[in-house]
């Protein structure tokens, strides 16, 4: 079993490596800004500030004085441009709040290295024995408290294909530890078991289209269609490994095998996601909200079914691996929040998220207590480090029993304009030849 401390350090090191690589990609020699032009000479300066043909020419000192409308237009334009620039800078940290409510411009790439930590607990009662009458059990009773800690470094991206059309994706790496604290009637004291797993989680990708632009009281409206692939090790994979080890005699043996197999890193099912979101700017605040629906088609997977077999005058509980048909999964999500700009660089955001997953079926039979209700209260702040780099820090508090107790997310979006043009220039610089030799001189042999 791997050490949790070493694996946690691997996740943090991987996240920091992603950030450093993206900063190098953004500010490296090949992708740096074009060298600044030399200061204009006095003659160039006069040509630059000369009015266009549509603007009245500036009169000489001996000519008739110009009307006051000309000098009034100059500060007015400067103020408008300054106000527009300030508004654009103010919105930089707010764009990351609502996750794509305002799409990127054409040929703009945003890389999003992120680190998420989730903590959750669950308590349940386990029966390992047989019952004679209802509420009378001969055997072992166990109270199990399960603590789950998940650290997820991930790399996401968003790219503007054209005006109002954007593609995005996310590749997560998941490190999960599960600790089970069990109190049994058979043994005195407490028994603590732990398992851990590290690997790739479920990869997601989506396409977003903005069909309405903010004007007056109309908000920005975006529709998003995406999918999540079951690339992570799932609970179904764990059940298959447990079944491959042979028959299971009792619940205690099943729990031992389950602990030895480690933790799940993905859902094990395809999910098709669709959502509609809106963003409305009410300076210095931005209101945002979304409504989403997810669907997972029916699949056939390996499950563990606990059957009751007659033993004398009682009933013995025996786990049994089966191949079962899982029905479709339907879930609805909502999100509503507000972001407030404190200044040109810092903003705070508050939101409420809610997800309801409806009950599922196995072999046509409804699974009891299979519906899930997850509600969280989210708070965070955003800091614009530069016009291209921001930092988003957010925390979530679970409000329902199915929600995690606490979650923390650190994201550093890095914006890159014209990434393909810069890549071509960089590749051209790698393969470019040296300057040609002077005329009359033969090139030296390599």
What does this structure look like?
Helix content is about 20%, strand content about 50%. The strands form two sheets. It has a twelve-stranded antiparallel β-barrel with strand order 1-2-3-5-6-7-8-11-12-15-16-17. It has one domain (about 5-25, about 95-425): monomeric porin ompg (Porin), CATH 2.40.160. The radius of gyration is 30 Å and the shape is elongated. It is built from six helices and 18 strands. It is an alpha+beta fold. It has helices spanning about 5-25, 40-50, 70-95, 235-245, 250-260, 420-430, and strands at about 110-135, 135-160, 165-185, 190-200, 205-210, 220-230, 270-280, 285-295, 300-310, 315-325, 330-340, 345-355, 360, 365, 370-385, 390-400, 405-410, 415.
Quaternary form: single chain
Can you give the helix content as a percent range? 10-25%
Summing up helix and strand content along with how strands pair, one would put the structural category as alpha+beta
- What is the assigned CATH homologous superfamily? monomeric porin ompg
Q: How many β strands by DSSP?
A: 18
* Uncertain residue ranges: 1-7, 27-101, 128-139
Q: How many structural domains?
A: 1
Q: Mind summarizing the main beta sheet?
A: 12 strands, antiparallel, barrel
Distance between the termini: 56 Å
Shape: elongated
Mean of residue pLDDT values: 75
Just give the CATH class. Answer: Mainly Beta
Strand content: over 45%
CATH architecture assignment: Beta Barrel
Report Rg. 30 Å
| Helix and strand sequence | HHHEEEEEEHHEEEEEEEEEEEEH
> How is the largest sheet built, in terms of strand order?
1-2-3-5-6-7-8-11-12-15-16-17
CATH topology: Porin
Count up the helices: 6
